[in-house]
Design a protein that fits this description.
Two copies of one chain form a homodimer. Helix content of chain A is 26%, strand content 33%. The longest helix of chain A has 11 residues. The interface between A and B is large, with 51 and 51 residues. Chains A, B: It is an enzyme of class 4 (lyase). Chains A, B: One of its GO terms (cellular component) is cytoplasm.
């Protein structure tokens, strides 16, 4: 089984991938958008991508790609994130700090306090940062300790994320919709008629009156107009469950577009 | 009047500041968090900061700071954003592309298509990027054309944002709450009881049943747990308007924390 994920080796995505499917053949992709499209374009059987972090929030590029692909979400994994500062040099040498924007965002206060004068650079992944830092002793990468080992860097500081409770939720895209397990979650993307006051309230009412619990609602710009959004909504239950099936059917009449991104077994809440 | 904003000279914030208050003394701050706190800490009478972009979405660092300050939002400005690629060198020299993460995000496809091998670096502002690009001909900054002029760079390409309709909404923080004008908006931040199903639906009902139009809802991690959020909600009307006053009063009983961030005259929708 070919499992696509953000590369190179040593990303948090790799840790999530090994937790999800220990025996899979890992296919490392250049960026998160490619990883999100990897099942659609036929290069992988499944792919695993981060969708939200408990400190920095949603991963916009993955959400945007979800609107365009056909492959369903087939599962999720939640991973505790422990960010490390690693370098070939020592603490006093560091002039440049490099990581993925999510890694930098999760350690913003730490960087501001300890390296107020450092130049901050972004890369496509935390492990790409570690690989680059191999070459320059004045550069420190932020990422997981596994990537320090992989790229021969010293871990100078561990657990530098600004908030102790730092978790990332990953979703898995696949070819086949999973059957109901009794402990499922369904992800939807909806585009409402923005000019109708109360449209979102009316929409959420279809869940509320059936006691369907909503675990997440996130807006994302439609890119057409300021103040015009897609809503990403996660609810408990499977789209084949009677109540949720009825709700989705009623909702389809209430919005311009409703896309079921997938129904899949819930990971236990972090 | 001292007006704080993200510096150095040449940011989109400067264009918004001049539109907001043409005669104000501009006080350029190091980063968006400082600019958001500038009235609270006494260094400015007002400050202006970006809160959302029509392509890249919310500005998380400003939202996080809004939860902690006391100064009210007193106004808003909407600015069309036209991103330029500028450098001391020419197109074929470019090896490094540098900008604020919002600028990079708004031009992600452009960079991917035209400079697939360029190294991408972030700075605290678009004008900081332009200032840095003065020194290196192999570096191109992304920002507004005004900053090219300011820092002696050539504009190599204009309008490189991925989506033509690219607008940024700025909010203004001040000392005194504005009086109702009949064309107002109110911004709220609410923290609901996450373990009560239907809590958000119930909350939005207080607006819907009074026909109060909601123009924006955005979630932001509480940083305590994955799946635990603050909601940022904008509604039409002033907190002194009878209907909205009643709604807010009813809502205070329904959530753990409700903070009125401000009531202020609406900018016309872009």
């Amino acid at each position: 089984m070919k499992l696509g994920l953000l590369g190179p080796e040593g990303t948090f995505s790799e840790m999530a991938a090994k937790k999800w499917s220990p025996g899979a053949q890992l296919i490392f992709m250049d960026d998160m958008e490619c990883a999100t499209r990897a099942v659609d374009d036929g290069s992988c059987d499944e792919s695993i991508v981060p969708i939200e972090n408990s400190v920095e929030g949603p991963v916009g590029v993955v959400m945007d790609a979800l609107l365009e692909i056909r492959s369903p979400i087939v599962g999720e994994e939640v991973l505790p994130v422990r960010q490390c500062l690693m370098s070939r040099g020592s603490l006093k040498d560091i002039k440049i700090i490099i990581s993925h924007p999510q890694g930098l965002g999760q350690c913003r206060h730490y960087i501001h306090e300890h390296f107020p004068k450092a130049e901050v650079r972004t890369t496509g992944s935390t492990s790409h940062a570690a690989r680059l830092a191999q070459e320059f002793p004045e550069m420190a990468a932020i990422g997981c300790s596994e990537s320090a080992q992989k790229y021969g860097l010293k871990v100078l500081r561990e657990g530098i994320q600004d908030y102790a409770a730092n978790y990332t939720r990953f979703i898995v895209l696949g070819r086949h919709k999973p059957s109901p397990t009794g402990h499922d979650k369904t992800s939807l993307a909806v585009y409402l008629d923005r000019d109708r006051p109360g449209a979102l309230y009316d929409f959420l009412g279809e869940f509320a009156r059936r006691s369907i619990n909503m675990t997440r609602i996130e807006s994302r710009p439609s890119k057409k107009l300021l103040g015009d959004y897609w809503f990403f909504i996660d609810v408990e239950g499977h789209e084949k469950d009677l109540e949720l099936r009825e709700a989705i059917s009623a909702l389809k009449d209430k919005c311009t577009t409703l896309k079921v991104l997938g129904s899949y077994p819930r990971a236990d809440r972090a």
